[in-house]
Design goal:
Largest interface: B-C, 38 and 38 residues
Structural class of chain C: alpha+beta
CATH topology of the largest domain in chain A: Ribosomal Protein S8, Chain: A, domain 1
Strand content of chain C: 25-35%
Distance between the termini of chain C: 51 Å
CATH superfamily of chain C: GHMP Kinase, N-terminal domain
Helix content of chain C: 25-40%
Strand content of chain A: 25-35%
Oligomer: heterotrimer
Number of helices of chain C: 4
Largest sheet of chain A: 5 strands, mixed, barrel
CATH topology of chain C: Ribosomal Protein S5, domain 2
Number of strands of chain C: 10
Number of domains of chain C: 1
CATH superfamily of the largest domain in chain A: K Homology domain, type 1
C-alpha cells in the first residue's frame, strides 16, 4: 500500500502522501499519479482517499454556511460585508426588505451601517462572482452586544465538537450564548462580561490545542478552575 | 482579507469601559503595554534597537556618514530622522513614498531628540564648515498595533544610546578610519508619551483598536529633567486646556518610568 | 560606515574568513509566524543577513482593474532597509530592488496554486533588515515559508541558495565580501517535487565546467535549506502538541 505517513502525522506542502490509485482529498493535489500535501496539517487516510486537516487556512465561502461578517460599505442597493474570505460578500437590500428596494424611501444605513456585525447565510457563490448573503432566516441579522472571537476556520469543527459536544459544554459551563460562524468568527453573549471572557478564553484554548486529544475535558476543567477563582 | 476597522459593537464596548475607568485589555487608563527592548540587533549598523510595545514592533537603525554641514550651523553635525511604514506592518500601509503619517511620525520623534539636544551635534564636527558627521535615524515599523510614536521614540533613543562611531583622522582632506570606536555623544533622554481621548478620558498608550475609536491624540515628550521638549496633537477631535495640562503631568511620570527601561545605570 | 577590506578571503587550506569550508552553508536560524498583522510571515538569519517576509492575501485586488478573471495576482516587493547595508541606502526603491522583486516573484509563482483564487491578489513583502550577501535567496526561502504560514495552498516549498567562485575556488553561500571580491555568484531557487529551477542568475564569469559545478553546489545548498524549511514549519505545531500531551 503506497502511502508514506502514519495517520495524523504532521505534513508540509510538497510532502508525498500516497501513490497510484489513491484519491486526492482536501488540501492535497495529484500530479503524475502521486498525491502531495498542499498545506501544513495532519494527514489522514480513509479507504482509498487521502486528505490533510489543515492547521491554518482561510475561509472559502460555501453555499449554506452560516457566517458572521462586518459591514464595510453601504453601496447603492445593499451592503458589502467582510466575511474574512478572499472575496467581499454582498447583501442585497431587497433581501432585508423582503421586497424590491426603493431608493427614495429606504434609508440603507439605518438598517445596517458600516461597522455593524451581522450573522448571515451564504446563498450563492461561484468562481465568477462574489458570495451573496441572506439574513432572512430566523436567528440571522444584526449583532448588538457581546464579544467576537476570531479563530482559524479549520478549527471551527473542533469548537462545535462531535455532535455538538464541545459547544454545548461551553454554553453550559459559561452560561453564554455562543454563535459559531463557519468563517472562523464566533460570537459570544453572556449575562456578564466575566462570563463572556471565560467563553473567549475557552475558545482560544480550543484553537491552540485543536490537534490534541482529551481537549473537551481539559477545557471544562479550565473553565471551572477560572470560575472557582473569581 | 483583513479589515482593520473595529465593529460598532466593539467600539461601543471600548468607549463604555473607558468611561468607567477600565480598558478592554485589562490595563489601567495610564498603563503602558509590556515593553520589550533589544539593542544592537543590526550589528552592521552603527547603532540599532528593536522595541515591542504590546504587539507593535518597531526597529530603528542608525547609520553615520560623513557629509556637509548646514550653512547656518557650519560646525555642527547633522541629525536626520526618517520613518518607513512598510507594507508588511499593516494591511493599511501601501508601498510608495512617505505619506503624511510616516512624515508626522518621523518629525515628532525628531523634535523630541532635537529640542532636548539629546545628541551633542557640536561634537560631530570633522572639519569646520566642510565635513561633519550625519546621523541617520531610520525608523522601520514592522507591525502596527497602535502607538507607533512612543514605540519609535523608545527605539530611537535606545538605538542612539548603543551607537558606536569609528575613530578617524583627517588626512589630506580625506576622512580615514582609525582602529577603535567611541560612543555617540548622547546627553539627554527624551521620552514620548502618547494619549488618546476616548469618552472624554485620557488613555495612555492606545492600541490599534483604541486608536480607531479615539477622538484625538496628544503626544507629550519629556526630557530627563522633567521639561517638556515636544508636543503634538493629532486627529480630528480636540482636547480641553485642562486635559492638556493633566496630560503633561501624567506624561512626566510615565516618561520617567519608560526612561528607566531604556537608560541603564 | 567605512570598512577595511581584508586581503585574502580564502586561506591555503580552503578555510574562509568566517571559518567555513568551501561547501558549508552559513549558520541559519528560521522562525515562522512572527508578525501579528500579516496573514503569514517568516524571519531568517543566514550568517549576518537578516530578512523578514510577510504575506497578505488572498484578498480583493486594489486597484480593481488589475484583477485577473481566472487566477490570483501574485505581487512581490523586495526592499532593503536604509540601515541594512554599509552605506546608508535611500528608502526609495532602486533599480536593483525592482529587478529582484520581479525575479523573486517569478521564483515563487510556480509553487502557488493561483488558479484556486480568481480575482484576488496575494501580496508578498520581503524586507532586508541586514544584508550580507545572498539576500534574494534568503528572501525566497523565507517568503515561501510565509506563504505556507498564511495557509495558501502550494505545490511545494521553494528553497534558494547561491554558490560562486572566490579566489579561484568554487564556494557555497557567499557573503557580501566574497561576492564583491569574487569572480562569480550564482543564485538558484529550486522546487523539489517538480525538480524545477525557478530562479537562476549569474554575475561574473565561469567556464562551462565551472558553471555546472557551481549550479550543482547551489542545488546541494537548496536541499539542505529545504529540510530546514520543513522542520521550521513542523516545529511550530509540534511544541504545542508535546506541551499538552505531557
Amino acid at each position: 500500500m503506497p502511502t508514506f505517513y502514519e495517520r495524523r502525522q504532521l505534513v508540509t506542502p510538497g510532502d508525498l502522501l500516497a501513490e497510484d490509485d489513491y484519491v486526492a482529498g482536501e488540501n492535497t493535489y495529484k500530479d503524475d499519479g502521486k498525491i502531495y500535501a498542499n498545506r501544513v496539517g495532519l494527514v489522514d487516510y480513509e479507504d482509498r482517499k487521502v486528505h490533510v486537516v489543515a492547521l491554518k487556512a482561510f475561509y472559502i465561502p460555501y453555499v449554506g454556511d452560516m457566517v458572521i461578517g462586518k459591514v464595510v460599505e453601504v453601496s447603492l442597493s445593499g451592503w458589502m460585508v467582510n466575511v474574512k474570505a478572499p472575496y467581499p460578500a454582498l447583501l442585497r437590500a431587497s433581501d432585508v426588505l423582503d421586497r424590491p428596494f426603493r431608493p427614495q424611501e429606504d434609508d440603507l444605513p439605518s438598517i445596517f451601517d458600516v461597522g455593524d456585525l451581522i450573522i448571515a447565510k451564504i446563498v450563492a457563490y461561484d468562481r465568477t462572482r462574489d458570495p451573496l448573503l441572506t439574513v432572512r432566516e430566523p436567528g440571522l441579522g444584526k449583532i448588538t452586544r457581546g464579544q467576537l472571537v476570531e479563530i482559524t476556520p479549520t478549527k471551527i469543527p473542533r469548537v462545535i465538537g462531535r455532535k455538538g459536544s464541545m459547544i454545548n459544554m461551553l454554553k453550559q459551563e459559561t452560561g453564554c450564548h455562543v454563535t459559531v460562524g463557519q468563517n472562523g468568527l464566533i460570537f459570544v453573549s453572556g449575562k456578564t462580561p466575566e462570563d463572556e471572557r471565560l467563553a473567549v478564553m475557552a475558545i482560544r484554548k480550543i484553537e491552540q490545542e485543536a490537534h490534541t486529544s482529551g481537549l473537551t475535558d481539559r477545557v471544562t476543567e479550565m473553565i471551572r478552575r477560572e470560575k472557582g477563582g473569581v | 482579507m483583513s479589515s482593520i476597522m473595529v465593529s460598532r459593537v466593539k467600539q461601543k464596548q471600548i468607549a463604555q469601559l473607558i468611561s468607567s475607568g477600565k480598558r478592554l485589555d485589562g490595563r489601567g487608563l495610564t498603563d503602558y503595554r509590556e515593553v520589550q527592548l533589544e539593542d544592537g540587533v543590526i550589528e552592521r549598523a552603527e547603532g540599532s534597537a528593536r522595541v515591542r510595545l504590546g504587539k507593535t514592533e518597531v526597529m530603528v537603525g542608525i547609520k553615520i556618514e560623513v557629509g556637509e554641514p548646514f550653512p547656518d550651523v557650519p560646525n555642527e553635525g547633522v541629525l536626520t530622522v526618517n520613518a518607513e511604514l512598510v507594507p508588511l506592518a499593516s494591511p493599511t500601509f501601501e508601498p510608495g513614498p512617505p505619506d503624511e503619517n510616516s512624515i508626522e511620525l518621523a518629525r515628532v520623534v525628531d523634535r523630541g531628540i532635537r529640542e532636548s539636544k539629546a545628541v551633542a551635534l557640536e561634537k560631530l564636527c570633522v572639519e569646520p564648515g566642510k565635513k561633519v558627521f550625519i546621523v541617520f535615524v531610520d525608523i522601520y515599523v514592522l507591525n502596527h498595533d497602535g502607538n507607533l510614536i512612543d514605540a519609535s521614540a523608545i527605539a530611537s533613543l535606545a538605538a542612539l544610546l548603543n551607537t558606536k562611531m569609528f575613530n578617524y583622522e583627517v588626512k589630506e582632506g580625506e576622512v580615514k578610519i582609525k582602529p577603535g570606536y567611541t560612543s555617540l555623544p548622547v546627553r539627554n533622554y527624551p521620552m514620548a508619551v502618547t494619549f488618546a481621548k476616548i469618552s472624554d478620558k485620557l488613555v495612555v498608550d492606545p492600541w490599534l483598536e483604541e486608536e480607531q475609536v479615539m477622538d484625538a491624540r496628544l503626544t507629550v515628550t519629556v526630557e530627563k529633567d522633567g521639561k517638556v521638549c515636544a508636543v503634538q496633537k493629532g486627529g480630528y477631535g480636540y482636547f480641553t486646556m485642562q486635559q492638556v495640562l493633566e496630560a503633561a503631568k501624567i506624561a512626566r511620570e510615565k516618561a520617567e518610568e519608560l526612561r528607566k527601561l531604556v537608560v541603564k545605570g | 560606515m567605512l570598512q577595511e577590506t581584508p586581503r585574502k578571503l580564502i586561506d591555503e587550506s580552503g578555510i574562509r574568513l568566517d571559518g567555513r569550508g568551501l561547501n558549508e552553508l552559513r549558520p541559519i536560524k528560521i522562525e515562522v509566524g512572527v508578525l501579528s498583522n500579516a496573514d503569514g510571515s517568516a524571519y531568517i538569519e543566514q550568517g549576518k543577513s537578516k530578512i523578514l517576509a510577510a504575506v497578505y492575501g488572498p484578498k480583493e485586488v486594489h486597484p480593481k482593474h488589475l484583477a485577473l478573471p481566472d487566477r490570483a495576482l501574485l505581487r512581490c516587493r523586495y526592499h532593503m532597509a536604509p540601515f541594512s547595508v554599509e552605506e546608508r541606502k535611500s528608502p526609495a526603491p532602486s533599480r536593483r530592488e525592482m529587478e529582484l522583486s520581479k525575479v523573486i516573484r517569478e521564483a515563487l509563482e510556480p509553487s502557488v496554486f493561483v488558479e484556486y483564487y480568481p480575482r484576488t491578489s496575494i501580496d508578498l513583502f520581503i524586507e532586508v533588515l541586514q544584508a550580507d550577501g545572498g539576500t534574494r535567496c534568503s528572501g525566497i526561502t523565507v517568503a515561501s515559508l510565509a506563504l505556507a504560514d498564511a495557509g495558501i495552498p502550494m505545490r511545494d516549498l521553494v528553497a534558494a541558495c547561491a554558490a560562486g567562485k572566490v579566489e579561484g575556488r568554487l564556494a557555497l553561500d557567499l557573503t557580501d565580501l566574497e561576492d564583491k571580491g569574487g569572480e562569480a555568484d550564482v543564485p538558484l531557487a529550486w522546487m523539489p517535487n517538480l525538480n524545477a529551477v525557478t530562479l537562476l542568475q549569474m554575475d561574473g564569469m565561469l567556464t562551462m565546467e565551472e558553471f555546472e559545478h557551481v549550479v550543482n553546489l547551489a542545488l546541494q545548498g537548496c536541499k539542505q535549506i529545504y529540510q530546514l524549511q520543513k522542520e521550521t514549519l513542523k516545529a511550530k505545531y509540534v511544541t504545542v502538541k508535546e506541551a499538552v500531551e505531557e
